[in-house]
Amino acid sequence: MGVLGAVAFMATLDIYIVNVALPAISSAFAGQSLAAVSWVLNGYAIVFAAVMVPAGRLADHFGRRRMLLAGMVIFAIGSAACAAAPTLSLLVTGRVVQAFGAAAIVPISMSLLLPTFPAARHAMVLGLWAAIMAVAASTGPVVGGLLVGVGWRWLFLINVPIAAAALVVGLWCLPRVARDPRSHPPEPWSVGGVLVGVTLVVLATVQGPEWGWGSPRVIGLYVVAAIAAAVVVLRSRRHPHAVIESVLFANREFRSASIGLFVFFGVLSVWLLSTVLLLEGVWHYGTVRVGLAILPGPAVAAVVSINAARIARRFGRSVPAIVGLVMFGLAAGLWLSGARDHSSYASTFLPALLVAGLGAGLAQAPLLAAAGALPPARFSTGSAVLNMSRQIGGAVFVAVLVALAGGSTLPQTIAPVRRAWILMAAAALAGAALITVMRLRPVNKQAMETR
Hints:
Layout: H1 2-16, H2 22-28, H3 34-37, H4 39-62, H5 64-84, H6 88-116, H7 122-150, H8 154-157, H9 159-173, H10 188-211, H11 216-238, H12 246-250, H13 252-282, H14 287-294, H15 296-306, H16 308-315, H17 318-338, H18 345-368, H19 379-404, H20 415-438, H21 445-450
Helix pairs in contact: 1-6, 1-7, 1-9, 4-5, 4-6, 4-10, 4-19, 5-6, 5-9, 6-19, 7-14, 7-15, 7-16, 7-18, 10-11, 10-19, 13-14, 13-17, 13-18, 13-19, 13-20, 15-18, 17-18, 17-20
C-alpha cells in the first residue's frame, strides 16, 4: 500500500505542481511565450489521458507488476530529462516521457490493490487510494510554490529519488498477479483508435479557447476524434481482443461509474480552479497562501475517503456518489449566495469549501471502486478506463470554465468566478440525477467471465 500510494501520489502531483511554475519557466527560456510554455502542462495532460487505457490493457496481458515497475523507470527518466532540459522543446519532450510513465503508474497501482487485499477490504483500500489522490491535488500548488522558490527544476528533480526508492522497495514487495491464460494482446486498430481519439479530444478541448471553438482546426480535430471513437466502438463490439472489450460496459455499475467519474472529476476540476481564480485573482492571495487556503477542503475529502468502506457497507456505492455530487452543488450555491469581491474567507468561503470537500470524499471512492465489479483479469483495463474518464472530464470542464471566464486566467472581479460556480452546480446536480437514473447494480462476475 505504501509503495503503490507513493508512486500514484507522485504521478498525480505532477499534474498540479507545475501550474504555479509557468511564469518562472517562461522567464528561464527567453523569447518563449506563456502559450508555448503551457505545453509543459498540455503535453503531459494529453499523453497521460491517451495512453492509460492501452497501458492498462497491456498490463492485464503482460503482467501488472512488470508494467508498473517499467512505468516507474520511464517516469524517473522523464523527470531527470525535465530537470536537465536546456531548451523548452526538450522540457516538453521530457514531460511527454513522464506522462507515458504516469499512464502506467496510476491505473495499474489502483488495479494492483484489488488482488492484493481480500474483496471485503476493497472499499477501504480504494478509499485510501482516493484520499492519496485528493491530497496530491490539494498540495500541488503549495509544494510547487515552495519548490519554485528554490528553483523550478526541483519540481522534476525531486521525483528521481522518490521513484528510485519506490522501485527498489517495489521489486521486493509488489505482488506477482497471475496472468489470465486466455488473455491476448489488444488488437492494433482499437489501440490506435483510443490513442488518436483521446489525444485529439483533449487537444481540441485544451486549445479551443485559444484557437476559437468554431475554428476549422478545432472542428477538424473533433471530427477525426469522432471517427476514431467510432472505430473503437465498432472493434469493441466485433473483435474479441479489442483494447476496450464490450464486456466492461456490459456491467451496469462500471458503465455508470465511468460516466459518473467524467462528471465528478470535471466538477472537481472546476472547484479547484475556481477557488484559485477567486483567491489569487479577485482576493489577491499569494501562491502559498492560496494553497493553504484551499487545503481544508481536500483534507476533509481525504478523511472521508479513508472511511469510504464503512459508508459503502451501510448505504451501498451509489448513494454516497449521489449525495457527494449534490453536496458539490450545495457548496456552489453557498458561494453564489455569499462570496463577494472583498475577502471573506472564514464567513463565506471556508464553510462551502468544507461542504465541497465532504462531497468529494463521499463520491470519489465508490465510483473508483467500480473497477472491483469487473472480472479480476480486467482490473487494470477497468481502472484505466475509469481514470481516463476522469481525466477527460477534467479537461473538458476546465476548457468550458476558461471560455465562461472570458479567457482570463486571473479575473479581477467575482463575475467570471460566479459563472464557474453556476457550471459547478448545474453539472453536479445533473451528474447526481444521471447516476440515480442509472442506479448502480452489481453484476454476476461468473456470467461476465463466461461471456
